[in-house]
Amino acid sequence: MAPKRQHPALPADHRQITLGVVSLPAFFRECLISRVSQEMDLHAEDLGTGGPDAVEKARRADPDLVLVDLPQAEACLLGEALLESVPGTRPIAVHRAAEVHELVRLAEAGYIGFVSTDCSFQDLLRELRAAIREEANCPPRLAGALLRALRKRQPDSQGQPDRHLDVLSRREREVAALLERRYSNKEIAAELRIEFGTVKNHVHSVLTKLHVQNRWEIPHLARRGT
């Protein structure tokens, strides 16, 4: 008898993880959904070929992760649209030996993980499991490039007014404080004893009021605004 397959731990609320897949070739989406579903305890959704249709499908499916296999420019637009419409999702980009500056642009668009087209299927599974734990397997060259990009941007912010948290409601400030500590939406719901959907609404409102593109910018803003 074959050994029982071990699955990664589920979230504390035992809600099944949902993975959305975006790619131009339909066969790639179908094969990946079938294979990943066999290897991991998750529900996979076909989100199509990108654009507004993929965003609308993601809004309905509310995926925890979205694997995006699109050209860099299209992937960036989709990543930004996903974080605007489905703030709790975690996009992962499939890239083709991209230059560092292209990976930095994807990170700026909200991608938390990167999978090379020449990686193995097991490498992909490891990246997905890391994303479930809200960890990013960041290549060293990308980590260095992100730090350099951040240093270059710091002088640009000098002389601009700080964006304080005063614009937020009491509950939104509580949510922002947990975002500062890198809490996931599910963890925020458990900590504040509110519904998961309510958390998503609060996160969206916080991002809108603070004029930031994604939740990963909150820690820096929160430190400046206190």
In short:
By secondary structure, the chain is an alpha/beta fold. Helices cover 51% and strands 12% of the residues. The protein has 2 domains: 17-140, Rossmann fold (3-Layer(aba) Sandwich), CATH 3.40.50; 162-225, Arc Repressor Mutant, subunit A, CATH 1.10.10.10.
Features:
226 residues, alpha/beta, Rossmann fold, 2 domains, 10 helices, 5 strands, 51% helix, disordered C terminus
Give structural notes:
By secondary structure, the chain is α/β, with parallel strands linked by helices. It folds into 2 domains: 17-140, Response regulator (Rossmann fold, 3-Layer(aba) Sandwich), CATH 3.40.50.2300; 162-225, Arc Repressor Mutant, subunit A (Orthogonal Bundle), CATH 1.10.10.10. Helix content is 51%, strand content 12%. It contains 10 helices and 5 strands; from the N terminus they run βαβαβαβαβαααααα. A 5-stranded parallel β-sheet has the order 2-1-3-4-5, sandwiched between helices. α4 links the parallel β4 (90-95) and β5. The model is unreliable at 1-13, 155-163 and 222-226 (pLDDT under 50).
Highest-level CATH class of the largest domain: Alpha Beta
What's the helical proportion of residues? 40-55%
Number of H- or I-type helical stretches? 10
- Spatially, the strands of the biggest sheet line up as 2-1-3-4-5
Instruction: Using the CA coordinates, give the radius of gyration.
Output: 18 Å
Can you write the helix and strand succession as a string? Answer: EHEHEHEHEHHHHHH
**What is the 3D shape?**
globular
Please give the number of β-strands. 5
Largest sheet: 5 strands, parallel
* Low-pLDDT ranges: 1-13, 155-163, 222-226
By CATH's scheme, which homologous superfamily of the largest domain applies?
Answer: Response regulator
